[in-house]
Amino acid sequence: MKFGVLRFPGTCDEVDAQLACERVAGAEILWHGDRDLKGVDAIVVPGGFSYGDYLRVGAIARFSPLMESVIDFAREGGPVLGICNGFQILCEAGLLPGALLPNRTLRFVCRQVDLRVERTDTPFTNACEQGELLSIPAKHTTGCWYAPKQLHEQVEANGQVLLRYADGQNFNGSLADVAGVCNEAGNVFGLMPHPEHAVDPLTGSTDGLKLFASIRDSLAAHV
Amino acid sequence: MRVLVRPKAGILDPQGQAVERALPALGFEGVSQVHVGRLVELEVADPAQLPAMCEKLLVNPLIEDYEIVSIDGAPAASAAGAAG
Asked: DSSP letter string over B2-23?
């Protein structure tokens, strides 16, 4: 199987994302101005500062030609993983619930965080154990996940929260410690921390690899 | 035209809070309810399209309210709290 990793002007984590994907399958970079998804089986929207974060994080990238194709791909059930700025873009595109606000401290934070796995019966977490803590780095200024009360209740009732910051580690002020949330259909998932930076023992943790392996395994199970 | 964008009431506004704390530190007393938003100035051929422009791009209605004001200061349209 092959991952497609999007690249916008201002994206900076696409090479790490590609390398992470290549540890479990094939991967190819897709350019924002193209519409062709080149037959990839899953999409990764990586982190960075697409279009300089102008207006609002993710607001401009959401309208790129490539994103129009990704939106169609997602509506047809294709797996889409958004990381950091990718998560912000997917929220702006309406593919994921809620929005990302500035960290409550207003500061850029770069630190290793533990994420608690809330569900394992999903295309993104099936290689994890229920309740397992994943050690993954986070690095962002605008990562405080927020949804209005009614939407948040709906998201919780549907079991769309797949990852939460472990106790005491919610450094950005996210509602209900939400670190990663999926859409109602379960095929689009976004998180603020960076699993693609946690794939090699050299950097301390390989827990991020489990998310990429989960996507590969869920696709293999459907072939 | 001007589009004034502000955080929805009740939403965590750390920028507003930071400014609210900073002003008394400089000796300005009696400041409260500070909110920091965004100003978009633009010339448009058809101002009737502005609400659609706001809903689609200029504003994230989930977290922000907006107000459209003509450049002479008269309010033209507002969507404060519209998306609850």
From this structure: EEEEEEPTTS--HHHHHHHHHH
